[in-house]
């Protein structure tokens, strides 16, 4: 019986090793494109739409690491600031809107999940699920804080609009991100050896 190859820490680095500005820029743009595409898979709700972006952010961080993950989210936000139609609402006006805090959380989550992945925590299921849960929390905490402070000014209304409708969907997206990362890790392990 042949032993399974060890899962790579970061699938992107296993498939495309090395460094360089061109590699980093292309990977960041690929991550930004995934995040932009995930914004358009949505259930329109107010004040916060339900999208596939949390799935994309978790997967980007876990597969790219903290630096490239943050660069991908920053490239996405930069495109939004330039007016590219990449946001769920289709406009850069969300930078002052009710979803602004969640966008801040995207960067925090990509860094935290990427940091955990870089240290090998995502090679085993408990570490992977734990890292993704931390990522989810880092998306929701600034999102809820901003929604409360700048828009709703009521804790119950904030939780009812900005957290409760998303719990089941985000649990499913977390599991999908975990399964997708595991597939990427296995594919990358197979490509190495």
Automatic annotation (TrEMBL):
The keyword ATP-binding does not apply. It is found in: Cell membrane. InterPro entries: BioY. The chain crosses the membrane at residues 20-43, 55-79, 99-117, 129-151, 163-184. Its main location: membrane. GO terms for molecular function: biotin transmembrane transporter activity. One of its GO terms (cellular component) is plasma membrane. Keywords: Cell membrane, Membrane, Transmembrane, Transmembrane helix, Transport. It is a multi-pass membrane protein. The keyword Transmembrane helix applies. It comes from the Bacteria. Belongs to the BioY family. This is Biotin transporter. It comes from Caldovatus sediminis. The lineage of its organism: Bacteria, Pseudomonadati, Pseudomonadota, Alphaproteobacteria, Acetobacterales.
């Amino acid at each position: 019986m042949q032993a399974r190859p060890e899962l790579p820490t970061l699938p992107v680095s296993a498939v495309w090793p090395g460094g360089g500005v061109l590699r980093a820029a292309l990977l960041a743009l690929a991550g930004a494109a995934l995040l932009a595409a995930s914004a358009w898979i949505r259930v329109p709700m107010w004040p916060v739409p339900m999208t596939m972006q949390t799935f994309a952010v978790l997967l980007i961080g876990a597969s790219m690491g903290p630096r490239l993950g943050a660069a991908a989210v920053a490239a996405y936000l930069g495109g939004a600031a330039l007016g590219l139609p990449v946001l769920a609402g289709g406009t850069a006006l969300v930078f002052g809107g009710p979803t602004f805090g969640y966008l801040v959380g995207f960067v925090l989550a990509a860094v935290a999940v990427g940091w955990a992945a870089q240290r090998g925590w995502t090679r085993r299921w408990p570490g992977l699920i734990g890292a993704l849960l931390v990522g989810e929390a880092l998306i929701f905490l600034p999102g809820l804080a901003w929604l409360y402070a700048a828009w709703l000014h009521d804790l119950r209304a904030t939780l009812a609009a900005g957290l409760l409708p998303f719990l089941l969907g985000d649990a499913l997206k977390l599991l999908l991100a975990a399964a997708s990362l595991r597939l990427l890790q296995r594919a990358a392990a197979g490509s190495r050896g």
